[in-house]
Structure formats: C-alpha cells, structure tokens
Design goal:
The protein has 296 residues and is of the alpha/beta class. It is built from eleven helices and 13 strands. Strand 4, helix 3 and strand 5 form a beta-alpha-beta unit.
C-alpha cells in the first residue's frame, strides 16, 4: 500500500522509509523540506503544525506512521497534543485504515514524567477522529544519532569520572534500532488498534549501561551516584558535557526516574524473532558512527 511516514527525516524515519520500500510498500516521505530530502520514498510536503498541509500529504495513502514530537520545545505537551489531533483528523478525512505510532514505555500506574505523559496523550488524540491506532511503545533506542543513545555514548567518552543523579539506578530495556524498525514494518500486517511494548534482550540500570559502553570502548569510568542532584542541575550538566540542549535534556532527565521495561510480551508472539542484546546493539551503533565519519 501507499504509506505516509510523518517524521521521515528523523532518527527512526530515516531507517524506516527504506525498510518499508524494501518490503514492497510505496512510501510518501512527509517533510517540511521536500526539495532537500534525499532518503527513500517520494518526498511530500507536510507539517504536523500546519493542519492545512496534511490533506494533500495524506492523499492516496492507506496507512501512516507518526514519528514526530516537539521534545526540545518548552511547550512540547501543548504542541504535540495539537499536532496529534490535527493529524488524526486529516487521517480520518483521507480514509486511512490505520496510524502506527511510536510511543514510550512506562507503567501507567507510575507517576509518569511530562514527556511520557505527553506520549500517552498523543496515543489517544491520534485516534480521536476514528482511525484505528497501533501503538508501539519503546524505551531507549540504541542507534547512531538517537538522542538517548548519544547522551550515553558522550557521557562515557567525555568524562573519566561522573557524579551521577539517582536515575543511574533506574531500570530500562533498550532496543536496537534495526529491531525497532523490524517491529514497525511488521505492524502493518497486524490488525490495527492494539498497544504493543518493545524492548531488547537485556534489562539494565542506566549506570550499568554506562559501564558496559565503557567496557566495549575499552575505557574505565567511575560513576558516583549523588541522590540530591536535582533534575534541573542534571539537565544543565548534560548540556555541558554532551551536545544535547538543556530543554531536551531536562525532558529526558525527568523521564529517567520512570522505569521503562516491557510488561506485556505479546509482541514477541505477533512478530516472533530474537531481539539483539545490549552489547551487540552498542557495537552496531558505534560501527555505523565510525563508517559515517570515514565517508565524510
């Protein structure tokens, strides 16, 4: 079918579009800058914050992927809610059979961070106009260029020792980017309207992730947890030692207090394969980064 990818130029979208074309789908790559788009699929103009642009972008599509967010904006919750409502309404007018949304892991019974609460809200708003929404919830995605992965890599590479906040003890279940893309492609063949949870083979605390990346890179790193380090100070700390801006860092730090692990394993039955372990995912991400640097 013809599939629109909203967020085609982003971290996940750049890998998803060629995977969809490889699976035989006709891809409409929605972007605000179609003249500059060099990825897989046919570039079409569209902006989730410009509701008037969405009808033309979705024309002829049977399904859509929604991969966009406004995490770096101070009012990202309002912006993401408005964008999701507009996109869902346009999808209904276009007669789409489904929207596939990449959301975030996290227990609904937990006190979720604003970032994760926003992801939950978007799930509902996308389907408000009646189009079935298939949700794939994931935590940290390990792949070259991903924000959470880049924070992890840069902390390890820039600091021989780090005074770390209490979130170093929070458990997470990272997933390799190729495995995430494989799940996303497969969900086009699954009856729409369900929520799935995706994770890799390993459940790790953030501190253990940092140590394992250091070991893979043959570095020795000392991590000293400091429970009283506030989220605001943590976000400024991240902005000083990584290239992630303070606003995005604050949103991510706030989410790091929430455990993000898979509770519902039904996806493994619907799309059966063995996901990569953490070390293999890290090695693949580092290899991709090295290859990109060589090709420049």
């Amino acid at each position: 079918m013809r599939v629109l990818v909203a967020g085609s130029s982003g971290f996940v979208g750049r890998r998803l579009c060629p995977a969809l074309t490889g699976a035989g789908h006709e891809v409409a790559a929605m972007t605000r800058h179609p003249d500059d788009y060099a990825g897989a699929g046919e570039p079409v103009y569209g902006d989730v914050h410009d509701a008037g642009s969405l009808d033309r972008a979705l024309d002829g599509a049977g399904a859509a992927y929604y991969l966009v967010h406004s995490l770096g904006e101070p009012d990202f919750e309002r912006r993401d809610a408005e964008a999701a409502r507009a996109f869902g309404a346009a999808a209904a007018r276009a007669g789409l059979t489904r929207v596939v949304y990449l959301g975030g892991l996290g227990d609904d019974a937990d006190d979720l961070s604003p970032h994760l609460r926003s992801r939950r809200q978007v799930e509902g708003l996308l389907g408000e106009a009646g189009v079935p929404v298939t949700v794939l919830r994931a935590g940290i995605v390990i792949g070259h260029g991903g924000i959470s992965w880049e924070i992890t890599r840069q902390l390890v590479e820039h600091l021989p020792a780090m005074v770390a906040p209490r979130w170093v003890h929070t458990r997470t279940q990272p997933i390799a980017l190729p495995d995430l893309v494989r799940y996303l492609v497969a969900l086009l063949d699954v009856p729409p309207g369900r929520v799935f949870e995706a994770g890799g083979a390993d459940v790790l605390a953030y501190g253990d992730m940092l140590r394992r990346v250091a070991r893979i890179e043959s570095r020795h790193r000392l991590i000293v947890p400091v429970p009283l380090l506030s989220p605001r100070l943590s976000s400024w700390w991240l902005s000083l030692v990584t290239d992630v801006d303070a606003a995005t860092g604050r949103s991510l730090v706030d989410s790091m207090i929430n455990e993000v692990v898979v509770r519902d394993h039904s996806l493994r039955k619907v799309v059966p394969f063995e996901p990569m372990g953490f070390d293999a995912a890290v090695t693949a991400a580092l290899r991709e980064r090295a290859a990109e640097r060589v090709s420049r």
